[in-house]
Amino acid sequence: MPAKTAVLWPGFALAGLTFVVMGEMYRRRFRQMRRDRIAPDDVATSVQSARLLSDSAASDNFRNLLELPVLFYVAVLLAYATQQASTEVLVLAWLFVALRVAHSAIQCFGNRVVPRFLVFIGGAIALLLLWARLAHGVFAHV
After folding, report:
1. What CATH number should be reported for the domain holding residue 129?
2. Is there a contact between 93 and 130 (Cβ–Cβ < 8 Å)?
3. pTM, two decimal places
4. Interval 87-105: pLDDT, tens
5. How many domains does the chain contain in total?
């Protein structure tokens, strides 16, 4: 794998995780709707969905994967555009992805709050360090 594109792989991996969680969310929703005979129009809004669908863990996690990770995707693209695919950047990017995988597993299958929070904070710190490293790389040459 060329060094220049190596930094894109963590972004593809996180996008893949997002699609897996989306699939799990819809699998659970469709199963419950079929089992409880819930009409699609009865869950047309998020308020209706929250009231009628019992398993919100996967949908909560899906939303989580579209919040903080936005900064990650921008960081990956910045690293690529500025050719900052150093070992440090790659380690931080893959660490963030690994922690998001752990966060998703905890939230979707058991949802224990303290371990989930610790993994979330670890990911947020990894992302902060990634941004700090990228900012240093950009502004060190100005």
Report:
1. 1.20.120
2. yes
3. 0.89
4. 999 999 999 999 999 999 9
5. 1
